[in-house]
Design brief:
The chain is globular, with a radius of gyration of 20 Å. The strands form 2 sheets. Strands 2-3-1-4-5-6 form a 6-stranded mixed beta sheet, with helices on both faces. Strands 7-8-9 form a 3-stranded mixed beta sheet. The chain is α/β, with parallel strands linked by helices. Strand 7 and strand 8 form a beta hairpin. 35% of the residues lie in helices and 23% in strands. The protein is built from 9 helices and 9 strands.
Length: 297
Amino acid sequence: MTERTHKSGFVNIIGNPNVGKSTLMNQLVGERISIITSKAQTTRHRILGIVNTDDMQIVYSDTPGVLRPNYKLQKSMLGFSESALDDADVLLYVTDTVEKTDKNETFLHRVQQAKCPVLLLINKIDLTDQPTLERLVEQWHVRLPQAEIIPLSALSKFNIELLKQRIVALLPDSPPYFEKDALTDRPARFFVTEIIREKILLYYQKEVPYATEVVVELFDESPARIHIKAVIVVERETQKGILIGHQGQALKKAGTTARKDLERFFRKKIFLELFVKVEKDWRNRDNLLKAFGYQPD
């Protein structure tokens, strides 16, 4: 009787901002791992989502959208995206039906040099017509001739099962990299910060969401509930005023919706306390970027 082989691999999701990488990640993992909003720079870290079966482990990796850095935080975000090119067993390069094939030539050149299989995913195909899609496929064949092109719609789950089958077929034989009951490499506190930050992205405009970081100071879990204290860090007093709002109403709204999502995520009652603190120019301060997990020790 032949022994069953076990497949494992890192499947890294890369691409420019706003093409649907986080939506795709959540469809592939089957859990709400990556926050999703319509704003660019939603994902700031490299987030792993792990799918296990008896004979397989897929380690999906969502990365920040590729952009030219304007400050040190964005430089760290670009570093997370570039590292995903180096350790992938399968690379998922996500584009959509609006993005031009010559966007971000430098990063695309690095994708062309990838040693692993590349699946080029044209997302949001429900927003275009067949002739336009066919022209786009031809253009991408020229740009990335080694890539296998799969048109899909992550939002409506079109071709997601086909994509999963292709990923499994490309996985190498390997023992698992993580415990078989693991869902992610991130601790619970990380998902608290992501859910709160998502609400800030949804409810506040212009620069405020991008000048914001969330730090969990208390995560006290009991059988019945979790008590969470979180600090929202901003760069200026004016941003603090906008976050809090008149008589605290804006912060209360963000906190209430965050608490409801946290209760769904952890399947427990949540007592959430939010505070706002000013740390001038934190996005360019190495010590704070390191403390917030954006730079290696």
